[in-house]
Amino acid sequence: MKALLRIVGVLILIGIVVVLGLMFVPPQRTAPAAALPADYQPPPGAGRAVAVAGDCMACHTAPKGQPYAGGLAVPSPFGVIYSTNITPDKETGIGNYTLDEFRAVLIDGVRKDGAHLYPAMPYPSYRKMSEPDVRALYAYLMNDVKPVHAAAPVTALEFPFNQRWGIRAWDWVALPKAGFEPHMGDARLDRGAYLVEGLAHCGSCHTPRNRLTFAEKGYDARSGDFLTGAVLNGWPAPDLRAKDSDAQRWSAAQLAALLATGRSDTTGVAGEMATAVEHSLQYLPKDDLDAVVGYLQAIRQDRAVAGQTAPRANAVATTATLNGASPQIDLGARLYLDNCSACHFTNGKGAKAVFPQLDGNALVTAQDAGGLIAVILNGAAIPSTQLRPARLAMPDFGWRLKDDEVAALATFVRQSWSNDAPAVTGTDVAKVRAASASAR
Amino acid sequence: MARQEKKTDAVIVGLGWTGSILAMELAEAGLQVLALERGEDRDTVPDFAYPRMIDELKYGIRLKLMNRPADSTLTIRRSLQETALPYRVLGSFLPGNGVGGAGVHWNGHTWRALPEELRLRSYVTEKFGAKVIGPDLTIADWGVTYDELEPYFDRFEYVCGISGQAGNLGGQTQAGGNPFEGPRKRAYPLPPLPTLLNGKMFGDAAKAMGYHPFPLPSANLSDTWTNEYGMQLGPCNFCGFCERFGCINYSKSAPQTCILGALKHKPNFSYRTRAEVIRVELSADRKTATGVTYVDDQGEEVFQPADLVILAAYQFYNVHLLLLSGIGKPYVAETGEGVVGKNYAYQMSGGTSLFFKNVNFNPFVGAGSSAMVIDDFSMNQVDFGREGFIGGSYISSGQFNGRPIASMPLPPGTPAWGAGWKQGIKDWYGHSMSIGSHGSNMSCRDCYLDLDPTYRNKYGQPKLRMTFDWKPNDIRMTQFMRSKIEAIARSMNPTHWASGYKGEGAHYDVRPYQTTHNVGGAIMGTDPTQSAVNRYLQSWDVHNVFVMGSSAFPQNLQYNPTGTVGALAYWSARAIRQDYLKNPRPLA
Amino acid sequence: MNDDRQPPTTWHALKPPESRPNRRFMLKAAVGSGAVLLAGGPSATQAAKALLDEYKPVYFSGAEWAFVRAACARLIPSGGDGPGAIEAQVPVFIDRQMAGDFGKGSDWFMGGPHDPNADPQRGFQSPLAPAQIYREAIAAVDGWCTLNKGKPFAVLDEAAQDEVLKTLQAGQLGLRAELRDFFTFLLQNTKEGFLADPMYGGNHQMVGWKHIGFPGARGAYLEWANDQGKPYPLGPVAISGERG
């Protein structure tokens, strides 16, 4: 008994020491990946290119807000996290950050005052950044971005998530090594890897996460889990590596078109990917876009998308049913004619590069119908891009359709033509509707 | 004292079709371009979004996309003896408003002027003798030839994605197209829309009588299209809410679908809405413009300095601004002197309805430009000497919409109300088609625009006054077309048919909708004593003012004006970019 | 981007429709009388009248409302083959129009000077907006009816009412020039109320559209462009999504 008590006491003591260590031992800052001279000048435009590739804008600019002044509310399973002001304003922004302090944010996820950042800031990916890129970004934010004097809302999560020292523990467990290790055996593909695994932080959405720690299950292509699909805030970010995924089935040109313009011949981006295209991917230099596409198609895995039903061998006679316009058709078909066929047409094929095809569409047939439901309720817009400036927007139908009607319609499109995905219920729809309302 | 804004290189008045074309051309040339639009901002979503857009009452009847007479209107009289009265309620024509202007809510008929139409006075004189031109007709040559404009017709058609069948490729007649059209260098960007039943029936009947039917060239697209700006349009779905409505699915050519998304990417382009230009300001010697004065959304006057002023508002407002700004000598009908305001013209149209008890036309399956046409009585096919008029018309059967409030043709004898009307609409809705004549209108001495002596706008400026009436020349033309159409109609053996054409003594009735093809008032030409702008649409009097639009037409074409308006805009833009900007001066 | 509206990727900022269908009113209709109305027949007319009785006009006075109900009922009568203005709730439409932009002439140029005696081809020239024209004309017509027929319009028999309307239509009732557009507006508004989207208070449950076979706010017919005369079988949909 005494021995047991002594063991328990020692364990408690160790626990206290660990916690105190986490709380009070100063955070370690990773040294720069390469030694550059103190007066190193980034090439002109390099900083802006890094900011664009990293898509700092997407999180650090609020809707209708000033560029990089923060204030965007990012929902997380732990509560709402607000992005910070990263303009060079000295009081409310990062104007007082030294280079080393700035690097620590990107590589170690540590603020100037030593506090750890919630990994809503994707430093687990940014940690792969090269030192020239860190320097270029620092110079850009400090010199080329307009300082904005505006304090962003302070993130205040509920206990225990407001204990930032806990993130330090998480970092120990979850973070990959800092820096980028070439592993593709080819300069172009490694450039693609550097961008995808690092700055573009695609894994933040497209890699499945550990259920307990919420850490990404892998951080580069050497991990079998990396970029194999996830559901984030009810939205399915597709598997990019399975042999029957869009990313692998399409030609390189189609994939490049999707990233650069938000639209391919058969579909368009929606949800967060639309933002990524609008602010970041459309501006990737051609060589970088080419490298990203090459890399993605090089990390193909010889398996089907998990949990996805294969397309039907014999397509349902949906087109003929819809064309008949009989008053006796089912509710789902009726709703399709009343709401959708004006653009997506009765054959579900939409129109090339303008109206997404629904027959065989990844979002429509995803295991998780959350994205499809969100699009029906709230609409979606393919953003205006330099190459394809038409902003192609689908209107919302949430005001027009009740939950059970949305469910019937979503089920209809998921099970028509060659599609064969599980049905949707009114409860599913109600959940998405409530989440959309609270996100406003 | 108006506040003053920072100078811009070019200010464009109005952000409709010609405003968007000129803004894009000048922005591409590297100028700082500012467009001022008096109406509101508009984009496909949310402003034309399905299903709220397809509301017949709101947009088709109450005309909520159009310019409101309460905001600005003109006065109208039919002769110098009448007192002009305000056009209080929209009827005869529907001026547009807002970003995109009428380019948002047009039908989409996109034609080229005939070679002969662009040099009409010369053509008539050469072929029939000058005596054929009545003393009151003031028809004129345009100063630009079809061959000069051909590449610009083509350019506009390719920006829009016009869906049609070429009839004359480089001089070679093409089957299925318009054999009477001017030669084009290449085919239309897209094939024609599918032909609806009415078009098939009319086409068959016309062919049997020896005519040459072809599908109407359509800015409702038959397929997806990506234009030179990277802008994309989708295929028309025949929703039947085309004219008077913004397109719900990106399939009607408009500034929004063809140009604006790309234009907004240019850092040297900007625009302000709810900014109504009330005057072009001139230098002390009145030889150049210094900019424009506009009223902003707070009701304050603002002076916007600029080196180049493009008037790209609707035809009426271009002429009105010239008059209010003192640019050019105003036309005085009593003396025939002056140029600004002269040669106002309209469109002479008429039609025959055919009723077929046993045919389902499904009229709600409609597109603004869905029609089968014959051009066998076009301007270059009619013997003016023999027929006693100068003019021509295309004849067509269209199915644009089946919107039941506006489109409810009923056989003659059906009561206007009561049980008979109720039965009539049940029996006949969906069982009728029509054949129409869309004809030219010759300009004349007493059809013109000037400033009204009595009525003022909300800024205290005199309203524009229109003096216009139908003249014997065009009435003879429309009666001629009537005889041709009724012959075709009879050959189709309808259960009933009924005609509506202006007859002898008819006067201009402003109540029923006719067309929004108002032209003239700032006509182009080669003689500064007879025209307001030169062949590049440059003001003869103020060389840094260019005036776009159908105000340039010396008389009206038999065709819808937009194709020619678009071509002239690109033509003028080229002259500005290649010539004027290098050395600002009168170009002619 | 130059416009100060952010282009959203989701449509939070969309405005709701200008006039929502009066949900309580429609709900009652659906629950109480829907099936009966659609079935047609004298009980349908009774049910429609009951529905009208429940409606509280926002513009018309009691006497005006009675006139409008009676006039509509003659312009598009009940009975025979199909619904009439009463079944379609057209008087509700007209009342609401009077209270809106149309009634107020908000979009029209109403400034003076006026020449209400001008040739009708010169277009509308009255100094009065439609709602005011209705008000004064109804009073004038009722006055004429009382004088010439002994009773106000609403309580005359149908044949007499038809006669009055024909006289009015022919411009022979003696309305002063400022009111001469009254019959034109009344007939136009009645037809609008029969065939406009139900959200405006008329075309109740799309009975007008069903009467003629118009599919309403579907607007999706590419596949029917080649139908070569086949009748279109599917019923209408309203902008609200209501299915008929």
Account of the protein in words:
The complex is a heterotrimer of chains A (440), B (588) and C (244). By secondary structure, chain A is mostly helical. Chain A is 42% helix and 5% strand. Chain A folds into 3 domains: 44-147; 187-298, no CATH class; 318-439, Cytochrome c-like domain (Cytochrome Bc1 Complex, Chain D, domain 2, Orthogonal Bundle). Chain A has helices spanning 2-24, 46-54, 56-60, 99-108, 123-126, 131-144, 165-174, 187-199, 203-206, 246-249, 252-261, 272-279, 286-298, 318-324, 331-339, 341-344, 362-365, 370-378, 403-414, 426-439; strands spanning 73-76, 79-82, 230-232, 235-237, 380-382, 392-394. In chain A, strands 1-2 form a two-stranded antiparallel ribbon. A two-stranded antiparallel ribbon of chain A has the order 3-4. In chain A, strands 5-6 form a two-stranded antiparallel ribbon. In chain A, helix 18 packs across helix 20 (426-439). The longest helix of chain A is centred in the first third of the chain and has 23 residues, at 2-24. The relative contact order of chain A is 0.09. With 588 residues, chain B is α/β, with parallel strands linked by helices. In chain B, 64% of the residues are buried. The longest helix of chain B is centred in the last third of the chain and has 20 residues, at 472-491. With 244 residues, chain C is an all-alpha fold. Chain C has a domain at 36-108 and 124-215. Chain C has helices at 23-39, 42-54, 62-75, 90-99, 101-104, 130-149, 158-169, 182-195, 207-212. In chain C, helix 1 (23-39) packs antiparallel against helix 2 (42-54), helix 3 (62-75) crosses helix 7 (158-169) and helix 4 crosses helix 8 (182-195). The radius of gyration of chain C is 20 Å and the shape is globular. Residues 1-36 of chain C have low confidence and may be disordered. Chains in contact: A-B, A-C, B-C. The A-B interface holds A 339, 341-343, 345, 351-355, 379, 381, 384, 386-395, 400 and B 43-46, 49-51, 223-224, 226, 229-235, 237, 239, 248-250, 257, 261-262, 264-265.
